[in-house]
Amino acid sequence: MLIDTHAHIDMDNYRDNLDEILENAKDNDVEKIIIPAVEPKTFQGIIDIIEKYDNVYGSVGIHPSDAKEYKDELYPLMLNLAKHPKVVAIGEIGLDYYWDKTFNDLQKEVFGKQINLAKEVNKPVIVHNREAHKDTFDILRKTNAKELGVIMHCFSGSPEFALECVQEGFYIALGGVVTFKNAKKMKEVAKLVPLGHLLLETDSPYLAPEPYRGKENQPAYVKYVAQEIANLRGISFEEVARQTTTNALRVFKI
Predict the structure, then answer these.
(1) CB 78 within 8 A of CB 101
(2) What average pLDDT does range 189-214 have in this prediction?
């Protein structure tokens, strides 16, 4: 059994063929899928999907690039949605200094507020971190987020940073990038991180793995991520599938 811990299947890309996408996932032994939220207007759509499909779960959160959309009046709504039994995390939240550095302080503030929200409902955080490694790590440590469970989504740091995160108790989520021929850093991360701290994801519809690179991603393709990790570590596909599934069930309390 495989679990795709990060797939944006609530997006319009899948509006007309979601049943087919989910059936294809099941045919490829992907038994559970988690949909992360990115902005307030996506919340209800995610709730609708997770209430319709037994094997799909969701999260509530505001992506750092959308931090300007956060308002304190949203907090009660997010808190209420976060108590839904199939909302298993707060995310994706975090810091992104790649596109626009003009509101870094606001990103940090909104990140901290959403970690506090996670503490109120005792659910883990799905963390987006792009070119903000130190600040992200410092905030997670300062808030003691490891008590909740921390998923470093689409990990993009160095092998050394990955091990720092593991030492803190965080989980490292790897997706299609690890299958790219030129992704030497991610391949090293996949080999170095203890298997008990690895999670699988697709980040659908983005970052499709080989042999589908450049095409629309989908949860069924998470098997290629698992196979690449198995190849890099010199272990069986079944071992990677079994341990990453155990890790996901544990951190998301499914």
Answers:
(1) no
(2) 98
